[in-house]
């Protein structure tokens, strides 16, 4: 934002979470006035330490299922537990956060000039039968399983937001985010990267679920946030579609659907465990535990659309991203206990 220009306001729901807090920092760097909302279900105010020192950041303790009284030109809807352990601990809260959260934001945005960037997920593809997954794939989701509160909640939110776009012209941009990791993940997050790193740093065996041959594609948080910001920026997109942002009466809605954001490099979970052990320099054991129900066998984004529309191109490979994440976990563990355990 140029000097002297009025600051635009960005609202980030789920601001105290892993991705939300990185987004807040990046938006402050870009010159936005940033309002963060979070109910701290899985978030941590410690993630907002840097933002809290910035006079342009404002935190509201709140639940997105209730009405939202903040008006912002740009809304990033990131509120929702994302780790299977957490989202399955309160399935009702997970499903209602996705669906009612999206509804409240549409109510806020309707009739106003406002862009909603929504954090959807690769989980909308379920246990995919098409590989890699393009946005045109409709998915293979169990509607009544243990993961359904998350998967179907996210699918329903996508439906609701697209209906609002068609019916009321709400400018909606949907990011289908694939497994993202990095500094600030909670110790007890429960997702595989943080589990393996915490286990390795504590000298405990790594818990590999199933045979470890299932795959995921891991994106470092910095790359992901760049993709989210590119998706939020109206100008290049509108230019691409021949619209001007200030053109009276031109609904500033780029005619594209959801966009996959992730790093297409695919690894088995066993390969991930071995990489973590190489980085931590540990010869710890890998132990097997049962594969959770409906655990997808494979996952890899087709990012052609993100490349073409947004110029999105993840730069940080797994080894470098894991190294940076390990350094962050080591520092936080050392803060907790002088022995780092
Ligand atoms: P996270 O659990 O660290 O963050 C979620 C945040 O939302 C937390 O701060 C939590 O307290 C808050 N929250 C939950 N319910 C709320 C409610 N009802 N009202 C207000 N705040 C609420 O998870 P994350 O990894 O940062 O994920 C953020 C978003 O990105 C989620 O919507 C998630 O579905 C999506 N996403 C993340 C990934 C990933 O790999 N990290 C992948 C796909 C999608
Ligand atoms: N996983 C594992 N050990 C763990 C946690 C997860 O082997 O301690 C596996 C899990 O079964 C899945 C993969 O790692 O196959 C990714 O799990 P995560 O919970 O990170 O994300 P998601 O399943 O939602 O992609």
In total, the number of strands is 13
Described by its quaternary structure, the protein is single chain
CATH superfamily of the domain at 9-180 and 221-262 and 300-315: NAD(P)-binding Rossmann-like Domain
Gyration radius, rounded: 20 Å
Order of helices and strands: EHEHEEHHEHEEHEEEHHEEHEHH
Biggest beta-sheet profile? 7 strands, parallel
Specify the structural class.
Answer: alpha/beta
Helix count equals: 11
CATH hierarchy: architecture of the domain at 9-180 and 221-262 and 300-315:
3-Layer(aba) Sandwich
GO cellular component, one term: cytoplasm
InterPro entries: Epimerase_deHydtase, NAD(P)-bd_dom_sf, UXS-like
GO biological process, one term: D-xylose metabolic process
GO molecular function: NAD+ binding; UDP-glucuronate decarboxylase activity
Give your account of this protein's structure:
Strand 2, helix 2 and strand 3 form a beta-alpha-beta unit. About 2% of the residues have low confidence. The protein has a domain of 230 residues: 3-Layer(aba) Sandwich (Rossmann fold), CATH 3.40.50. The longest helix has 21 residues. The chain has 341 residues and is α/β, with parallel strands linked by helices. A seven-stranded parallel sheet has the order 3-2-1-4-5-6-11, sandwiched between helices. The protein has a two-stranded parallel ribbon with strand order 7-10. The site of uridine-5'-diphosphate has 15 residues, from helix 6 and strand 8.
């Amino acid at each position: 934002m140029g000097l002297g220009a009025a600051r635009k306001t960005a609202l980030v729901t789920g601001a105290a979470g892993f991705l939300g807090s990185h987004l807040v920092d990046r938006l402050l760097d870009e010159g936005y006035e940033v309002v963060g909302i979070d109910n701290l279900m899985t978030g941590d105010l410690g993630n907002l330490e840097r933002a809290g020192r910035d006079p342009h950041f404002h935190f509201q303790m709140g639940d997105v299922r209730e009405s939202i009284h903040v008006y912002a030109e740009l809304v990033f809807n990131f509120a929702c537990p994302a780790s299977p352990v957490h989202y399955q601990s309160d399935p009702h809260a997970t499903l209602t956060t996705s669906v009612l959260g999206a509804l409240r934001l549409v109510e806020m945005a309707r009739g106003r000039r406002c862009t909603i960037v929504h954090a959807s997920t690769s989980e909308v593809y379920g246990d995919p039968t098409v590989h890699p997954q393009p946005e045109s794939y409709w998915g293979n989701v169990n509607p009544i399983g243990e993961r359904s509160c998350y998967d179907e909640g996210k699918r329903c939110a996508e439906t609701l937001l697209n209906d609002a776009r068609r019916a009321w012209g709400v400018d909606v941009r949907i990011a289908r985010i694939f497994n993202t990791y990095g500094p600030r993940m909670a110790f007890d997050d429960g997702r595989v990267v943080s589990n393996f790193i915490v286990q390795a740093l504590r000298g405990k065996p790594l818990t590999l679920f199933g045979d470890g041959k299932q795959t995921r594609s891991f994106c470092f948080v910095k790359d992901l946030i760049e993709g989210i910001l590119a998706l939020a920026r109206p100008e290049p997109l509108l230019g691409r579609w021949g619209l001007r942002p200030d053109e009276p009466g031109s609904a500033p809605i780029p005619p594209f659907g959801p966009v996959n954001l992730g790093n297409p490099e695919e690894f088995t979970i066993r390969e991930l465990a071995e990489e973590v052990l190489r980085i931590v320099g540990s010869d710890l054991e890998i132990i097997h535990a049962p594969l959770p129900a409906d655990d997808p066998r494979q996952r890899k984004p087709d990012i052609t659309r993100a490349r073409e529309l947004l110029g999105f191109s993840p730069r940080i490979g797994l080894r470098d991203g894991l190294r940076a994440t390990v350094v962050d976990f080591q520092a936080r563990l050392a803060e907790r206990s002088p022995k780092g355990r």
